[in-house]
Task: structure prediction
Amino acid sequence: MNDDYLWDKTGQPDPQIQQLEEILGTLRYQPKPLALPDDLPKRRNYVPLVAIAASLLLAILAASIWLRTRSRNEAPPRQAKVEAPATPKSDVAPQPPIKKSAVNPPVIASRRIHRTRSAASVVNNEEALMAKQQLMLALRVTTQKLHLVHTKTQPNQIKNQHRVG
Result:
């Protein structure tokens, strides 16, 4: 038997190999062009487009709801109401206005502000303090958790190193 015939079809063929080639020749690959039937209608798949449109609509809806609730929760800007004290009517001639100094002591200004505060502003101030305390607690917890994650994700570091020797 000649091994060259098996690899590159050169040399003298073996009769048993030729017989096997004839038997298996019917199963040999025969290339055919791809034939698509013309009678099938061409269908487009609109599912991805509909999914993209639906996700965009959901994102817009979520953003509008978030903005609406955010604007409702914001307190309007507060301004202190300063009303001039009512002057009693009398037969005495009005006194000329007293010139105010350019620098008002901060104690007097703060007393004026404290006098004009209403009960609602005190309640709002207490709510603001509670919200601040909750925020500070959340920040402390978050900082501790981030520190824990940071220490666990660091490569193996030798801690408490001491010089030997």
Observations:
- The mean pLDDT is 76.
- The two ends are 78 Å apart (CA to CA).
- The helical segments are 3-8, 15-24, 47-73, 106-116, 119-153.
- The longest helix spans residues 119-153.
